[in-house]
Amino acid sequence: MSDTIILNSVSQIHQSLGLAKPKHPLVTVVQAKDIKTDAEFRDVRIIVNLYQVALKKGIKGRLRYGRNSYDYQEGTLVFTAPGQVLEYEQAADADSGTYEGWSLVFHPDLIRKSDLADKIDDYTFFGYDTNEALHLSDTERSNIEELLDKITLEYSQNLDRHSLHLINSNIEMLLDYCLRYYDRQFFTRTNLNKDVISKFEKLLKNYYKSQEDSALSLPTLPYCASELNLSPTYLSDLLRKETGKSAQEHIHLFIIEKAKNTLLNSKRSISEIAYSLGFDYPQHFSNLFKSKTGFSPRAYRNMN
Question: Which of 99, 141, 240, 266 is most buried when burial is the number of CB atoms within 10 A of its CB?
Answer without folding.
Answer: 99
